[in-house]
Amino acid sequence: MDSLVIAGREFRSRLIVGTGKYKSFQETARALEASGADMVTVAVRRVNLDRSKESLLDYIDPKKYFLLPNTAGCYTADEAVRAARLGREVGISDWVKLEVIGDLATLYPD
After folding, report:
1. Nearest CA to 15 among 31, 26, 27?
2. For burial by CB atoms within 10 Å, which of 11, 21, 46, 47 has the most?
3. What are the phi and psi torsion angles at 78 (to 5°)?
4. 40 near 63, Cβ under 8 Å?
5. Where are the domains of the chain?
6. What is the third-level CATH fold of 4-89?
7. What is the DSSP string of the chain?
8. Cα separation, 75 vs 34, whole angstroms
9. Strand 9-11 vs strand 4-6: parallel, antiparallel, or unpaired?
10. To the nearest whole number, what is the mean pLDDT of the chain?
């Protein structure tokens, strides 16, 4: 299978794995390893940015996985832009997976 190329960056796997819904950070790390994915989405709003406390980012090797911050949990464009900027400012990535929730029941956009 051909590699996936986005903005000049090559990925071996076309699978992009999320980090939500796991019972623990350890389970997340095991799932990422088993997936074979190169790219991992990370909800900026759910990451503990206080580096003195345990964080999801402690369990994901940025040399092994490309971290793609996402704006999960945002309900407005302003919230999403703030979350995207925060992801960039804390050094996760300049890239972003944009999510804006319009309907809480379905999580579909407005």
Report:
1. 31
2. 47
3. -60, -45
4. no
5. 4-89
6. TIM Barrel (3.20.20)
7. -PPEEETTEEES---EEE--S-SSHHHHHHHHHHHT-SEEEEEGGGS---TTS--GGGGS-TTTSEEEEE-TT--SHHHHHHHHHHHHHTTS-S--B----S-TTT----
8. 32
9. antiparallel
10. 91
Neighbours of 90 (CB within 10 A): 14
Measured in whole angstroms, how far is the alpha carbon of residue 4 from the centre of its chain?
Answer: 18
The Cα 32–Cα 9 span in angstroms is 20
Q: Considering 23, 53, 63, 97, which one is annotated as catalytic?
A: 97
Rounded to whole angstroms, the Cα distance separating 104 from 11 reads 32
Q: What one-letter code names the amino acid at 106?
A: T
User: What are the tens digits of pLDDT across the range 15-63?
Assistant: 999 998 899 999 999 999 999 999 999 999 888 877 788 889 999 999 9
Is residue 27 within 8 Å of 60, Cβ to Cβ? no
Q: Is 97 considered catalytic here?
A: yes
